[in-house]
Design a protein that fits this description.
2 domains, 298 residues, 16 strands, six-stranded parallel beta sheet, Rossmann fold, 30% helix, alpha/beta, binds ribose-5-phosphate
Amino acid sequence: MTGPLLIALPGNDALADALVRLLDGERGRVELRSFPDGETYLRYEDAVAGRNLVLVCTLDRPNEKFLPLLFAASTARALSAASVGLVAPYLAYMRQDKQFKPGEAVTSTVFAESLSRHVDWLVTVDPHLHRRSGLDEIYGVPAAALHAAPLLSAWIAANVTQPILIGPDGESEQWVAAVACDAKAPYVVLEKTRRGDRDVIVSVPEVERWRNHTPVLVDDIVSTGRTMIETIGHLAAAGMKPPVCIAVHGVFADRAFQDLRDAGAARIVTSNTIAHETNGIDVTALIADGVRRLSPRR
Ligand code: R5P
C-alpha cells in the first residue's frame, strides 16, 4: 500500500512534514519560483502519476497563493495523479458571503467554485460559516470542516485558572459556546458593531460579576485585531484582569499582533492553521484524521 504524496506550497513545510509522519505518506517536491515579470513557474520534481496527492497550502494572504495552488493542482491532474486533495487549514474568502451593498462581489462563492474545479477534496479547520450551514453550499467537492474547539478547551483547562470565556460578538457564539462547554467554564457573548474594516464598537457587558475570573477572549479569526482590542478596552474599563486572547486562526494583518499586545492582552494564543509565534494549539492530528476520511486509500 502506498501512502499519499504530500506537497507543501511555500510556508507549509512544517505541517506537511508532520502530516507525512501521521499518514505514513511521503514528501514530494515542486520547484516553484517567479519569473522576472512576476508570473509563476512550477515543476513537479517527483513522479505523481497514479499517486494520491495532498497539497498543503494554508490560505491566509490568499491572492498571492491562489494561482500557484491552481497551477499545482491542475498540473498534478495533467500528470495523471490518481487524486488531488487540498489541506487548507485556514480557508480564505469565507467572510464576504453575501452582497452587503449593491454591486459587491460575493467572493466566497467565486473562490469556492474556482477551487472546486481543480481539487477532488478539501480539508480545513473552522471555516467562517456564519450565514452558511456548511461548505457543501459553495464547494462542489467533498469538504471536511474540522473543529478545533476541543483543542482550545483542553488548552484553556490546562493553562488558565478560573476562566470566564468571552465571545466578542454574536458570530463568535458558535465557537465560544462549544469551547466553554468542553472546558466546563462559563461564557458571555458581547455585541459588536463594525463601522468599517478597522472601526469596531463592542457593547459594555455585564462583566462585574466575573471580576475574580480570568477573561479568555475566544474567536475564530484575529485579522486586524480590532474586535479583540475593542473588547480588551471594555474589560479593562470594567475592572477585569488583562485577558488571554485565543483564536483558531491568527491572520494578523499588518501590525495587528503588536497592536493586540500593546492593547494589554495578557497572552495571545493561536492554533497552527497559520504559522505564527503565537501558535500554542496543534491541529495536525485533527487534520490527519480529516485527510484519512477523504483521501482515497490505495
Ligand atoms: C467576525 O466575523 C469574526 O468572527 C472575527 O470576529 C473577525 O473576523 C475578527 O476580525 P478583526 O480582527 O479584523 O476585528
